[in-house]
Amino acid sequence: MKFLRRTLAVAAKDLRSEIRSKEAVNASVSFALVILLLFSFAFDLEPEEIREIAGGLLWLIFAFAGTLILNRSFARELVNDCLDALLASPISGAELFLGKCLANYVLIIIVECISLPFFAIFYDVRLPHLGLLFVVMLLGTWGITVIGTMFSAMTVNLRLRELMLPTLVYPMLIPALLGAIQLSRVLITNGRLADNFIWFRILVAFDVIFTILALALVEIVLVG
Amino acid sequence: MSPQNYTFMFFGFAVAWLIVIGYVISIALREKKLRQELDRVKRMVEESESKSR
Amino acid sequence: MRQKIILTLAGLAGLILAWNLHTIFLEVPDEANQGAIFRIIYFHVPAAITSFTGFYVGMFSAVGYLIKKDLRLDSIAASINEVSLAFASITLVTGSIWGRIIWGIWWTWDPRLTSYFVCLLIYFGYFMLRRAIDDPTTRARLSAVLSIFACVDIVLVWKSIEWFRTQHPGPVLEIRGGGGMAPGMEAPLWWNFLAFLMLATALILIRTRQESMRLEIDALRRHAHAF
Questions:
Q1: Chains sharing 3 or more CB pairs under 8 A with chain B
Q2: Residue of C39, C213, C223 with shortest CB distance to B38
Q3: Domain regions of chain B by residue span
Q4: Which one is predicted more confidently, B29 or A98?
Q5: ipTM confidence score
Q6: Chain C residues close to A205, C-beta within 8 Å
Q7: Is residue C174 part of a domain?
């Protein structure tokens, strides 16, 4: 399948360049740890209360740290006219977009996996249903990645790129973040996932709808 | 009906109207600015056309 | 011709609003639980419906631009979204004041107010994006895609926040069945809605003409500098 091969080629290129320099992942992990620290100053709560808000804190950290990686996604191609070269190549806009999505996804998951144990340690939060929590992380992060990469493509040529991306992305992410936060909260506190299945549906619906929408519209955004 | 309720209701309506009026005024100001700009640019085009003749 | 349409619409809207004010204050009795502040619903709900309709019509106009590549459709979309944003602000402010009376708080994170606020934020972003782009074609293209994303997202935001919080009073107007409102009290609401729609249309027409003027100015300026 040519589509798959080209997509994976783009993803591999981005991942390779990031693994060699490790700039974005380092910056993102540091940022996540700083936010963890700041939140610990901001809130002074009993352990039970912390467990209640742990879901929310976790996803705020993931969303903020993820934005650092997403910002660079298309911006790194501006140097040396690489973006023009990519657009002129036989790769379609959808393949380019999906490849970058996959690369960003892997990177953000790595950052989250590194931050999660620190979160559990700093806030003394036990994580019983780790497998299910990981599934929620996978689903929620895909939502963040799709929207973030799409808007990274949209804002790539603007002067105020770093300002515009968070402003545009965070309101859009609210359904996905809500779903992920609720599911994480349930998994951390009492594990009654069956009662809260609606959030699971919202998260999956968000991922599916916006992946399709993004793949359909990205060509218009990149090329015109 | 308590007088306090009346006050709040008055403020509520007042604010809604103020927003509408404010918006209409901002549109009117923009219109004036755009017309001035349009005239200026038209004059610029005429000047440069007459210069190049 | 166009000027006449605008004036007629605005004039009619003004008349209906004035007549409605009379009805709202003198003829409609106080509602049992909420007292006089209830009357603010006659502005809050029509403003909400008008702005929502506006955002979706704006999206269709934007899609029209993507298909036809006619910059006028982009001007229309931008004007509709801007006017809708103004009406959305009115909705939020009147809702907030209503809440202050009923619940004693200026703001609450209930489904409708929250998803409305998110809608406001998304469209603020829309206008920031438009301001950041100088080239008209790129601006039209990117803001069209953004408004498609926004409209799809707002549905999801609404539904998800609805499951998250439940403090807003249930729907007072049941469009299908009976409802929470006595029939005599409902009429001014629909009249106000009509008036708001006419007012919005008049404002949109004015704004669209301004956008076209803006495009003309840019084109002329390029023409002038080309010499």
A1: C
A2: C213
A3: 20-53
A4: A98
A5: 0.89
A6: 156
A7: no
